[in-house]
Amino acid sequence: xxxxxxxxxxxxxxxxxxxxxxxxxxxxxxxxxxxxxxxxxxxxxxxxxxxxxxxxxxxxxxxxxxxxxxxxxxxxxxxxxxxxxxxxxxxxxxxxxxxxxxxxxxxxxxxxxxxxxxxxxxxxxxxxxxxxxxxxxxxxxxxxxxxxxxxxxxxxxxxxxxxxxxxxxxxxxxxxxxxxxxxxxxxxxxxxxxxxxxxxxxxxxxxxxxxxxxxxxxxxxxxxxxxxxxxxxxxxxxxxxxxxxxxxxxxxxxxxxxxxxxxxxxxxxxxxxxxxxxxxxxxxxxxxxxxxxxxxxxxxxxxxxxxxxxxxxxxxxxxxxxxxxxxxxxxxxxxxxxxxxxxxxxxxxxxxxxxxxxxxxxxxxxxxxxxxxxxxxxxxxxxxxxxxxxxxxxxxxxxxxxxxxxxxxxxxxxxxxxxxxxxxxxxxxxxxxxxxxxxxxxxxxxxxxxxxxxxxxxxxxxxxxxxxxxxxxxxxxxxxxxxxxxxxxxxxxxxxxxxxxxxxxxxxxxxxxxxxxxxxxxxx
Length: 524
Ligand code: SF4
What we know:
The protein is of the alpha/beta class. It has helices spanning 39-43, 53-61, 89-94, 97-106, 139-144, 150-162, 167-170, 189-206, 216-222, 229-232, 249-253, 258-268, 295-305, 318-338, 351-365, 381-392, 410-416, 439-448, 468-471, and strands at residues 130-134, 171-175, 210-214, 236-239, 242-247, 345-348, 372-376, 396-400, 421-425, 452-456, 475-479, 490-494.
């Protein structure tokens, strides 16, 4: 519901009604066809300016007046019960927005058709990126035949503008119920059911990228939930694969809550919004720890969380093929990001696993050649603890110090190299200081001495250009959740040419990922 002003005086029978059947007898409840329950329904339509005592008595007791008399004491005929006219479902399903609108305007599928001034179809561009779905037209909407007008509309326009969305260009606005319930009462279940096909068809036709669901009844219809309103706020729901955000209509439209609501709306919107609009309180400043999931990523993932659920390693049926196709596409995208061949990407659960696999895998694979590894004291624990483990296995590890800028000394690196050195592992960018090491120079020194060069690229990949070919990187671990992806998935780049690098698997199982990392791939 967009607004809830005090109980209205009902719709005068004399007022013209676009697309509505003729007005009903004045003494009946416009929604149900039952006798009138409110004094203003009877008074406003009676010939006499004086309310009838019987009607007044009925209001006082809030019981239906079965017979209402006029000033001349002529009994009013009992109302004819409302008979809904069922729609042809095919007409709705096959309509485009232009042909759907007259269907809504002519609809008499529920009793609200008898009290409306106008059926409010909705407004906005045909392929808007946003769709706002409210509950039902209010008094002004009913008069103007437009959704979200008056104060509620102004506030909505303001709030959308605050997050970089122009109401006229990018938003289609509609309601669950197209006709105003008398007195702005709550829509009834049978009315919602009768009107729902119109809304579903509108969403299907507009195909918005995001839905803003306003109010409890809209949440019931679109989110299938009548859960506590607080529990619906502040998170992204999904309706037919469309990310949907819930806003409480009461807080949205009550002026004293404007600021809070606007802030909460901003809080909930996370994509395709101008950076200034992303500002929200409290401000999150720990993006090196993790980043929020970008809704576009969620959108791309959704099919694999629902319909395309096959095991990417299932080679003998289409469910597996479909999942594998998704994995191949993801692998190709990641390869492009760091300029390598897609076959050089090994999916892992994250950078920690990648660091473990890279360091332990090289230590085991190249044990015949040597047992010395060089790293730095400022590495992530995923590297430092793995190196400690290597030492327990009999390996030797040199921990290079860093200067006041967090950089290692290339001279000290050169001096630390021995014929036994099989791996130099220095992180690309530091998660705490932001220091970016001279990766190419480090790689050149490692290669000069016949060692492999590995880097933990977690804080660099996706943030600064990383080119494993140009940088001379042989192995690189990185993860998705540092760059607006989901947690639980990462990758290890392992060079296949010049030289061909191999790492010993640290998990035994089905031989996935070219035998280097067993385990069912977490698609997505
Ligand atoms: S509310 Fe919906 S179903 Fe009811 S008359 Fe209006 S358009 Fe038809």
